[in-house]
Amino acid sequence: MTDPSPPLRQPVRDPRAAEAPRDRELHLLVGLTKASKLIEIGPAHNPLVPRSAGWNSFSLDHATRVDLIAKYAGDPAVDPTRIEEVDFVWHGGSLTDAVPAEHHGTFDGFIASHVIEHTTDVVRFLQASRTLLRPEGVVVLAVPDKRKCFDFYRNPSTTADAILAYEEKRDRHDVRTHLDHGLRIAKKGGFPAWFESDTQPAELVCGIDVAWQMLGYRDVRDYVDVHNWVFVPASFELMMLELGQLGFLDLRVESLTEMPDTEFLVRLRPGTDTIDPAETQLRRRGLLERMLTELADQTRQIAGSPLAVPPPDSFRPGARARWRRWLAAGPWRRRVDL
């Protein structure tokens, strides 16, 4: 826990985010330099801090470089030369089990772009980040925003969901997650992610009969990937607040930046704000109210809804082309087969 004497730190929310991927990386990596000791989780074919570009980075993934090259062989959107050597191969359990003890508490940054939503146990994932970081380190996350991606019709995950997964020591997704994913996954114009101003209908990908296929995962012992955690910005902040105040996490939200498409970007710092029960209740209520507002804002994309807005006349020059290039090779492609 942190010293209660400093003033309470409120998350910085910046809804003004540039559309170019280059600006996205600036948001993610602010304050980090190539001299910083970094660990990137699940970079696969699209590392943010590649060692080949001079970063003092270590990678942790579920497979070796050779295996990753084989996995993406034949995929025209993947450049195999961008797949770097994997320093730590994770075979299950806590991420800290894959990283030698001499590295624990030594990293300046823990980076995970479009990874946290795939984890079976979000609490242990973030506990591992805290173990690997130096006391002044930073957790850098890119998180899908359900309002702007194929989770459009799914409900946000709750703190109760996170605690239950932690208590069960869950190492694979439960059948409810598979059912929810299969029955609610959506695309717009054939794409699994979009701009917040996109008013095309979000079309369901699967028919209702997919439920029978999803039920079959009850008997599968291996990990089968889907998005397990679903967020809007306020629901993410609420989960972090509640898990911190309950003693599950020693991390606090330093900043949250909403992007115009697909995702929001989060920075977490070690430490938990010490606040009294009354202040905790006020913050929780405020985040719950903001979450409802964000979900209502999602309906602006639905033609005929009370909040519907007309589509913009145009995007800024080149923005749509840059977005489609980024989306084609984006981190969401890493695991989910759409």
List keywords for this structure.
single chain, 338 residues, alpha/beta, eight-stranded mixed β-sheet, two-stranded antiparallel ribbon, 29% helix, 16% strand, globular, disordered C terminus
Helix and strand topology:
Layout: E1 12-14, H1 21-29, E2 38-41, E3 57-61, H2 65-71, E4 88-89, E5 107-113, H3 122-132, E6 133-144, H4 159-167, H5 175-184, E7 186-187, E8 203-204, H6 210-215, H7 233-245, E9 251-258, E10 263-270, H8 277-298, H9 319-328
Parallel strand pairs: 1-9, 2-3, 2-5, 3-4, 5-6
Antiparallel strand pairs: 6-10, 7-8, 9-10
Structure report:
The protein has nine helices and ten strands. Helix 7 runs antiparallel to helix 8. The protein starts with 11 loop residues before the first strand and ends in a 10-residue tail after the last helix. Helix 3 links the parallel strand 5 and strand 6 (133-144). It has helices at 21-29, 65-71, 122-132, 159-167, 175-184, 210-215, 233-245, 277-298, 319-328; strands at 12-14, 38-41, 57-61, 88-89, 107-113, 133-144, 186-187, 203-204, 251-258, 263-270. The protein is globular. It has an eight-stranded mixed sheet with strand order 1-9-10-6-5-2-3-4, with helices on both faces. A two-stranded antiparallel sheet has the order 7-8. The model is unreliable at 1-20 and 332-338 (pLDDT under 50). The chain is α/β, with parallel strands linked by helices and 338 residues long.
